[in-house]
Design goal:
Number of helices: 7
Helix content: over 70%
Structural class: mainly alpha
Number of domains: 1
Strand content: under 5%
Mean pLDDT: 86
Largest sheet: none
Radius of gyration: 17 Å
Distance between the termini: 49 Å
Amino acid sequence: MSVTHDIRRGLAGGVHMAQFKKDGVGLFDISADGFWNSFIALPLCAAIQVATLLLPAMLPPEQRSIGYLAMTAIAVMVTQLVILGGMLLMTRIIKRQEQFSVFAIVFNWTSVAMFCATLLMSLVEGFLSGTPVAGAGLLLAFIYTQVLTWFVLYETLARDMLLAFLLTVFILAVQLLTNFGIGWLTQTVGRALA
């Protein structure tokens, strides 16, 4: 199967999962090639995050340096890889490691849909800025991505609502710690180079 076909299939599956359709899992190529090709989703997520930051409501113009945007792109990909590493460990602990590759494939492609949702809600946020409901768009995007993460975990690994919830909290903690670490590293390196 070609990489282009895998990308189309992965994005279609990601859109189905983003709509909470259970048949979405069946749309993914869950072969070894499909697993490795799913990592193409990481630079797509990074590009969408950079596009989100370029929206006027997200970053003031003076913070839109190439270095900052490049570091953001790298941070997105590193965070996704750290999440996958953490989930590999967790699947071994809960004795479901045989399902890890399916989870990774679905998570990688569904992450593209999650980043697209954040981009769309950031556009809405631009229209809401200065209104009493400013911030609501990003809050909705955050809630949506957490529920979608739970759904992906439930459909691919857990089949247990509580376990899927606990794994969602684990992923959120990994995201926060990774982003904090990357932010600290960025500031430290920035100060050293200044």
